[in-house]
Amino acid sequence: MMSDRHVPHAGAGRGGALRDHATIRWGIIGCGDVTEVKSGPGFQKAEGSRLVAVMRRNGALARDYASRHGVPRWYDTADALMADPEVDAVYVATPPDSHHEYVRRCAAAHKPVYVEKPMAMHAGECESMIEACRAAGVPLFTAYYRRAMPKFTRIKALVDEGTIGDVRAVTTVLYQSYAPPAGTVPWRVDPRKAGGGLFVDLAPHTLDFLDYVLGPITDVAGAAGNQAGRYRAEDIVSMRFAFGSGVQGVGLWAFSLGTSLDRTELLGSHGRIAFSTFGDDPIVVETGDGTESVAIARPEHVQQPLIQTVVDDLRGRGHCPSTGESALRTTRVTDAALRSYYAPPTPDAP
Questions:
Q1: How many structural domains are present in the chain?
Q2: Residue 117 in contact with residue 144, Cβ under 8 Å?
Q3: CATH code of the domain containing 197
Q4: Residue 309: inside a domain, yes or no?
Q5: What is the pLDDT of residues 196-227, one digit of tens each?
Q6: Are residues 138 and 186 in the same domain?
Q7: Are 34 and 11 in contact (CB under 8 A)?
Q8: Of the candidates 122, 144, 166, which is a domain's last residue?
Q9: Within the chain, how many helices (H) and strands (E) appear?
């Protein structure tokens, strides 16, 4: 480990002690691409927050990240970062296959955790992570950051205000063409590292936001396949789903098409709201009074609004809407959609 400066400060101890902290001091496990712009700077710019340490198994890359982002310390082992008494809370930003291990180890070290999405490889791991944090008395948050981005909080407000009446149905589609470089299997389409393919990487953003707006999905039926044969993971998923509130939905995610489309529609008794999950196009609101387009710019660091809610929650000044429990629900939905695709064949299967 190399350090540019050292500022003595007592450790936070168990989660509740952070409520008295003026500043939450963060450490990152896995300072890769997602932390460069989307999340890492958010820990430095959020009020009452500071990024004090980063870890990557390649120490040279960890040192480079720390130098470029003005982070005081870097490590090449997770244990060293978790043992740092100046790290109050930890952001786990590794691929999903290590989320379970790192979150449980953070809990054992009595460090609150903010973990990347998808939360884990499957729901069983999510449940284990939640239990470990509960037993240690530390909170667990998940990086479903659309729950706090201005565009999506506006959509939720429109629904809550009854702009389109009672929501009755949802349709969602995501079409892309994706082919990894020849001879490579990026981790996002390697089921051993990601728990699935691009469906697991991308669809949860929409499904989790729908959970936030409409309540939990309670019934799922899905079909998955691999049409292009470019990798082992699924490249097409269709799904029928229903919410506890009675709202029904259908979705199609396809990643080997010659066209692109990203569109979700909330259909109500008095109108509809259409939006993209990943694009910057305006929200379209259609009611009996006409059609309105609402353009809302995305934040420079898309995770910063949610990070602020995490910091506020840890300091006892607010509430984070994205927890381990809410993320578990989303993982259960994606597990159900992919169950038949990844289920081991039975002895009689052809």
A1: 2
A2: yes
A3: 3.30.360.10
A4: no
A5: 999 999 999 999 999 999 999 999 999 999 99
A6: no
A7: no
A8: 144
A9: 10, 15
> What dihedral angle (degrees, nearest 10) is formed by the CA atoms of 5, 92, 327, 16?
-40
Cβ-contact 316, 52 below 8 angstroms: no
Do 133 and 127 touch, CB atoms closer than 8 A?
Answer: no
Which regions in the chain score pLDDT beneath 70? 1-17, 344-350
What confidence score (pLDDT) does residue 344 get? 65
Question: 53 lies in a domain?
Answer: yes
Under 8 Å between Cβ of 119 and 326: no
178 with 288, same domain?
yes
Q: By the 8 A CB rule, do 221 and 340 touch?
A: no
Domain holding 288, by residue range, is: 150-298+320-342
Last residue of a domain, one of 106, 123, 144: 144
Taking Cα atoms as reference points, which of 333, 305, 40 lies closest to residue 206?
333
- For residues 129 and 99, the answer to whether their CB atoms sit within 8 Å is yes
HEC readout, 167-234: EEEEEEEEEEECCCCCCCCCHHHCHHHHCCCHHHHHHHHHHHHHHHHHCCEEEEEEEEECCCCCCCCC
Distance CA 74, CA 136 (A): 26
Q: Which of 97, 12, 80 is nearest to 50 (CA)?
A: 12
Distance CA 319, CA 313 (A): 5
> Is 313 among the domain residues?
no
Q: Is residue 312 part of a domain?
A: no
Q: Which of 175, 122, 162 shows the shortest CA–CA distance to 270? A: 162
| Token digits of residue 66 | 């720390």
